[in-house]
């Protein structure tokens, strides 16, 4: 047993996970230490306004480059990966400019249509966030491809210090939602710059020529067309699904309820970022490598799910049992309701944590169309849960409870279906391998 543990610790995968977890853990420690100070400076309503802004940019930001950055890890040839970097950067710039023009032309109409008066003064920060979001995705996926995980770890730590420290320092002078939104608008840009700074080789493109080969870019775009066709709509709808509670709570129950939800989700994102994202970022190139080498991937996915379940059960279990008490002690008495919210949010976020290996496996399984369909169902269920409770009970806590339980059940189904698909993939690969062996040796 001891020999097995020693052997595991020597594996590159384990070392990379430890690097990612260490950097993320340090960042989350900074967040955990400073968040109680921040909540006492600003209050639930300011958090609610920031939550509405984040909900909007979190929907648009991840598709700024039509999810092509996710494909950067996949090509065997570095030249093809660099083409995806160029393509992603051009799309990010184009999307940011389009959003800016839309806001110039019709910002007032959009405010009335979506009832977002609380953030009407901050709309022009959205294109800035969109650009920085795309830049961050490109930088992150490139260092994941090159396995420079130490750059991500360092960037996470320094971003937490800069962003959270700024909220405290500036908040002591100007404790309003404007401060939170301004800092949040530049946070991903800061992280992207830090990732580039901490890379060993800070230049992605080593070619001396500055001429862009649009024929080559078109070829890369078509080769990975399933990302804009299936993955981008899925990410968009998933962004809406993940952030719809903030928007619906603000619309149905006011910005204070949105603030309670925002803090609850922020706290629960700590173990998700610490464990899930760190694990997932290392798992993605690992599962891609395993598929390229002909390994059976079902066992790898299942082991990852079980490992994440064991790691996640304690932090989420504590929130479910002691949520209100913990929130009132740590963040102040006015945040006790956020602890009630967190109890129900913890159920769905736990499954979001443990299904990360499934999400990372979808490009290999050619399951991005299924993922899109599943995300649409999840969004419909989320909206129906809130509207149904508002119609019958008009109670925000019951709405959060129904949202949490229904989405947790759906995420559990996602895990089961992914394992079924991966078994089919393994059987298909094994059959093809036997046919080739019979053809050449039989």
From TrEMBL:
The keyword Transferase is annotated on this UniProt entry: no
Localization of this protein: Cell membrane
InterPro entries reported for this sequence: Poly_Biosynth_Transport
Keywords: Cell membrane, Membrane, Transmembrane, Transmembrane helix
Membrane topology qualifier: Multi-pass membrane protein
Pfam families reported for this sequence: Polysacc_synt_3 (PF13440)
Superkingdom of origin organism: Bacteria
The protein's name in its UniProt record: O-antigen/teichoic acid export membrane protein
């Amino acid at each position: 047993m001891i020999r097995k543990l020693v052997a595991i610790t020597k594996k590159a995968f384990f070392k990379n996970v430890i690097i990612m977890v260490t950097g993320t853990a340090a960042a989350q420690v900074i967040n955990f230490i400073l968040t109680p100070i921040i909540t006492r400076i600003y209050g639930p309503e300011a958090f609610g306004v920031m939550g509405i802004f984040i909900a909007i940019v979190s929907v648009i930001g991840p598709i700024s480059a039509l999810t092509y950055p996710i494909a950067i890890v996949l090509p065997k040839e570095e030249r093809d990966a660099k083409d995806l970097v160029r393509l992603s950067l051009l799309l990010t710039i184009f999307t940011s400019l389009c959003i800016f023009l839309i806001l110039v032309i019709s910002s007032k109409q959009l405010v009335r249509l979506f009832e977002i008066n609380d953030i009407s003064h901050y709309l022009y920060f959205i294109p800035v966030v969109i650009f920085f979001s795309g830049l961050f995705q490109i930088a992150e996926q490139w260092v994941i491809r090159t396995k420079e995980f130490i750059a991500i770890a360092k960037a996470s730590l320094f971003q937490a210090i800069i962003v959270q420290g700024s909220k405290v320092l500036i908040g002591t002078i100007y404790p309003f939602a404007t401060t939170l939104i301004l800092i949040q608008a530049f946070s991903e840009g800061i992280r992207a710059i830090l990732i580039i700074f901490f890379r060993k080789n800070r230049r992605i493109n080593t070619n001396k020529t500055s001429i862009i080969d649009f024929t080559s870019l078109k070829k890369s775009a078509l080769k990975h067309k399933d990302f804009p066709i299936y993955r981008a709509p899925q990410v968009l709808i998933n962004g809406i699904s993940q952030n719809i509670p903030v928007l619906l709570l603000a619309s149905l129950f006011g910005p204070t309820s949105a603030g309670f939800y925002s803090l609850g989700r922020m706290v629960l994102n700590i173990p998700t970022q610490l464990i899930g994202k760190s694990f997932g970022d290392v798992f993605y190139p690992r599962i891609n490598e395993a598929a390229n080498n002909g390994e059976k991937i079902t066992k790898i996915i299942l082991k990852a799910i079980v490992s994440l379940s064991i790691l996640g059960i304690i932090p989420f279990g504590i929130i479910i049992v002691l949520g209100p008490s913990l929130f009132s002690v740590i963040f102040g008495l006015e945040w006790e309701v956020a602890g009630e919210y967190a109890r129900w949010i913890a159920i769905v976020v736990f499954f979001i944590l443990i299904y990360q290996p499934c999400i990372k496996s979808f490009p290999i399984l050619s399951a991005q169309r299924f993922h899109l369909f599943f995300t649409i169902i999840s969004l419909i269920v989320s909206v129906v849960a809130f509207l149904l409770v508002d119609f019958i009970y008009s109670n925000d806590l019951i709405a959060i409870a129904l949202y949490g339980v229904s989405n947790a059940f759906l995420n559990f189904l996602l895990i089961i279906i992914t394992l079924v698909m991966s078994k089919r993939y393994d059987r298909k690969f094994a059959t093809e391998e036997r046919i080739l062996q019979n053809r050449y040796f039989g």
